[in-house]
Design brief:
235 residues, mainly alpha
Length: 235
């Protein structure tokens, strides 16, 4: 099972859970009706078993929901990842920038690598919250405000004054971070999302339901034998 399959669960909402429960209810109703044709009381006497068996053909609904979420991510693009970046305390950002700027030989190196290196730090602290991504790509600040901030942070590397004392600077830092992380999460997983969005569950629904219906018929037949047919009849 791929890493992206597990992480897509975090995109689920009430709608996906509702679809799952409705699917389970439909299969439970089908099996109850099917069992009634074979043994009028078996389903009522074995509700737990019927529910457990109904779970089997419901499983493809997990992939169907993931397909729907993958399609939504592909339609919305990188911006769907932006709000998922966790903001850390300003002191954490300040300490990181101070240490990393001291290791950089120039402002240009800092401007290219500060955001990717901080991204690696964020992912390392909570990797389950983010899709797999490549942090080796340099950050290319496009707007003058971003270039100005990164240059200023580098210049302040040995100063006791915090470059993030102003809230606007911290907000701009996270805007750059969110944009970088969103773009690379999307690009790194786009091919797999496209593959997953093409999934169709209907064939699996039919196959698993047919198998479960066969199991139910066998259970009903076995119960009839044990109850009423010699030498299986219980004494």
């Amino acid at each position: 099972m791929s890493e992206i399959f597990i992480k897509l669960f975090s995109f689920w909402g009430g709608t996906q859970l509702l679809y799952l429960m409705v699917c389970l209810g439909v299969f439970w109703g089908i099996l109850c009706g099917w069992m009634y044709l074979w043994h009028k009381t078996w389903a009522g006497e074995n509700k737990g078993k019927v529910l457990l068996l109904a779970l089997i053909p419901t499983l493809p609904m997990l992939w169907a929901n993931h397909a729907a979420m993958s399609d939504e991510i592909l339609k919305k693009g990188p911006r769907i990842f932006e709000h998922r970046v966790e903001h850390q305390m300003p002191q954490v950002v300040e300490n990181f920038c101070s240490r990393f700027a001291s290791r950089c030989g120039s402002a240009e190196q800092f401007k290219k690598r500060a955001i990717p290196e901080y991204t690696a730090l964020v992912i390392g602290e909570n990797s389950m919250h983010y899709f797999p991504m490549d942090t080796t790509a340099d950050y290319e600040p496009a707007d003058p405000a971003s270039i100005k901030l990164l240059t200023y942070v580098y210049k302040m590397r040995n100063s006791a004054e915090s470059p993030f004392a102003e809230k606007e600077n911290l907000t701009l830092w996270y805007k750059m971070l969110c944009g970088y992380m969103a773009q690379h999460q999307f690009e790194h997983n786009k091919a797999q999302l496209e593959q997953m969005s093409a999934y169709s569950p209907y064939g699996w629904f039919a196959l698993l339901l047919a198998i479960v219906m066969g199991i139910c018929a066998r259970l009903a037949y076995k119960d009839i034998n044990e109850r009423y047919c010699y030498p299986y009849r219980k004494r």
